[in-house]
Amino acid sequence: MRMAIKAMGRRMQQPAAVSEDSWIEVVGLDKRYQPRRSAPTQALSDINLTVRRGEFVSVVGPSGCGKTTLLKILAGLSPKTDGAVRIAGREVTKPLPEVGMVFQAPTLLPWRTIFDNIMVPAEIQKLDRDKHRERAQQLLELVGLTGFERKYPHELSGGMQQRAGICRALVHDPAVLLMDEPFGALDAMTREYMNVELLRIWRESGQTVVLVTHSIPEAVFLSDRVVVLSPRPGRIAEIVPIELERPRELSVMSSDRAGVYVDRIRSHFNAAGVID
Amino acid sequence: MATTDVVDKPPRTDASPPGGTRRRLDLRERPQLWLVPTVFVVVVLAWEYGTQLLEVDAYVLPRPSQIVEALQRQLGDPQFWSHLWVTSQEALLGFVIGVGAAVLLGTFISQIKVVEATLMPYIVAFQTVPKVALAPLFVLWFGFGLTSKVVMAAVISFFPMLVNVIEGLRAADADRIQMLTVFGASKTQIFRMVRLPSALPFIFAGLDIGIVFAILGAVVGEFIGAKEGLGYLLLQTNYNFDIAGMFAVLVVLSVMGLLAHFVIRLLQRRLAFWAEETKVIGA
To answer: Which GO cellular component term is one of those annotated (chain B) (predicted)?
Structure first.
């Protein structure tokens, strides 16, 4: 099923050397903020992370541990201080067209219809319009928004707007999907529902996902691996592989094995004296 | 009264009212629908009969009926229409020039930080100059014809628009700009896709003030020196103690302003439709 949507093929050529096992590579990443007239703040320290193509990785950590900073560096929005960051073999120094991003707020443009909002990345990157219109339509169907193409964002609920935001992030068939606490603003019920939806979308679109969240259960439920960051300066405390069978249902979260993962991740926070 | 049965009904539930009773319920929820015309009728009646009762001279304050009479007289006079045409021309031309220049300059200024920082103090200083006081100067420079009034209307509608354009282009939401940046947008694309649409509600606010100011500018210009136009006609009627005629011209000027205002509101509702909607739905 992964196909209908993936079929259009990747448009940029990848350097032959890119291995599917190191689709995203972060090596010795450091990030320091140098405020004027005060001591520098170390936000991230010696981050090393390799993500396989098609993998779902979550980053969790206490507030201010730099998890959003890490995502912004991957998105090319924030410069790194030291180290190397590569996505699909390309050094990240500015926003790459290979990346799609879902934000904490849907950030749709209120003067555009849902359909035109979803087409924004294709429009910016001047991609073939007809081909991407078709893909946008498929994505809308995938997230259950068929029939809402001509509506404006304010006519949709928060959860529907966020789903439109996911379509927008996927319309140009990015190599990597970055998600910055995408469900943080939703109520608990909608959030659980969106988690299940996201897994389904991910399964069918096959994208590589890096998701930042402050919800440990959400990270466990969604991910192949959970990266636990320590409090400032953010270092990788542990990378926890989540070996729960897929496809996953919400009920998996009440199983003992899921509980063990959640407790293990939480123990890092407790040890650091921060309870999320 | 016909409305008593409505008043006696139980309070409205959230369900939308059936079509039949809709209009009456509207009147209850939006009392201004009948309050506004009522106030008008009461004021006009009080004016009409109060002036009679107190024997106020028509040279001081004409009665509404006399104003209507004068208005009818003027509307039947082809010369009046040519005055109206002249003032409309001056105001519209000045409006287009003033507002157009403000959009261009405002866009240019807000693109370059240094330019904005350098020019802003001058703009603020200029804004405090009472532009109306410049009218004699413009007549001196540009003569008694159309040009001096157009310049006056342009100058006076320029500043509110300029401030709105700058403010509007600055008002673009940082998250939206960041979103476009992630997807690789250039500065020009960001301008076209977010900054300009974000500025539209401000631009319409500027247009709304600007058109009224432009009419004001044209009339003031005509006061200083002109041989035609509604401002000239105002002075003429005043000299001739035709106070009812003067009021009639004022009525025409108000209608002009109102019409222009409604046209702009209509455009705004079509072109910047989201601004109102988001205000209602959102915060």
So the answer is: plasma membrane
